[in-house]
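To close the chapter, one final illustration. This time we ask the reader to focus less on the individual chains and more on the assembly as a whole: which components sit near each other, and how the overall shape emerges from the parts.
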Amino acid sequence: MVGLTLFTPIRPQWLWMLKIGFPIARRLAFQHNRVLQFEFIHYVRWSILRRDQLKGEQLRYHYLFFESNFDGPWQHYIDAFAYVIPRNIRLLWGRGPAFPYPPPAEPLKDWIAMNSMEGGHYYCAYPEASTRMVKGALDVRERFAGLVEEAGSLDPEAFAAAYERFLADAQAGL
Amino acid sequence: MAERSNRNGVAYSLTVIAPIVAGHEEELREHIESLPMGPDDPLARLGSLHFSRIQIFSDLVYQGEPQKHDALKGSHLVFTSSFDGDLSTYLAAICDRLGEDADGWWRHCAGYPGTADRAAFERWIRDHQVDSSMFSVAYPQATVADVLDSLALRERIVEFAAAAQSAGPEELQRRFLAEFADR
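The assembled structure is written out below.
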């Protein structure tokens, strides 16, 4: 498990687009699904930090704070971002100064490496579990509850058949 | 509105950014870097926490032309959490279960009141909170307890399936009911 944190300036002219775009995207399940479709992201967030919001500082720019919790390392997945959802990526960061505007993926990787906030302390409650494993296990548990519920009331032959069906249906999550 | 943007399903995204007292940065950095990992991590005591990151940032990356350089006057502590439930309950859990451990990193921040004064602690955290603009979660209805239970159950099922593969229907049912009576 890896945490990736980026903190990048937003061009003043682009702030309005993010302020309108995020609330709309938040309400549309397919926008969440576009980001999560690759099944290597557990949790991901974006925050707009206004230039007057960082206490004690006088900044020229508003900043975009991004944090993602991946099945790492992140370099393996940037190709997917750059080639499968380049429009989403460009909409989010495309008006930031010096953003490489993918595809291709290599300049994006260099840009992420340049902006990645390293160090610090990282915690995950289930560090060995990939996104696919977690989603699979949750699905298995739901299916299993049905089998457990009927297990005691079936005769042995019917139970064995139900058990085999469960294993076949839950196979992807096991 | 802001409360809603920090939520997705049962999960809440908290981002807290606070200025570090001048001269405290190195001591704080050493403290954060030396925090134990794994089961001994103090954050593990929270129970409802999926992910968390504690970082210091001292510089803003200059992107090159045509950007004008933004320079920070001081360093800032960034604390992020993705957890189950609402913010007040989570902050109360930090006071109850972390206490001095949480004070260990935030005491280096300007104006930090400490976890002993719960009301002041919550006010200070909310005052330094940066709301999420968008928060996406791969399994938004699953709590930490759900995830851990599901992963453990999955292991048990795999082990049971391997051990019982040659059992006849009667033995299979008997062993199944004995093994999973707790479910």
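The beta strands of chain A are 2-10, 41-49, 62-70, 121-124. The mean pLDDT of chain A is 88. With these observations in hand, you are ready for the problems at the end of the chapter.
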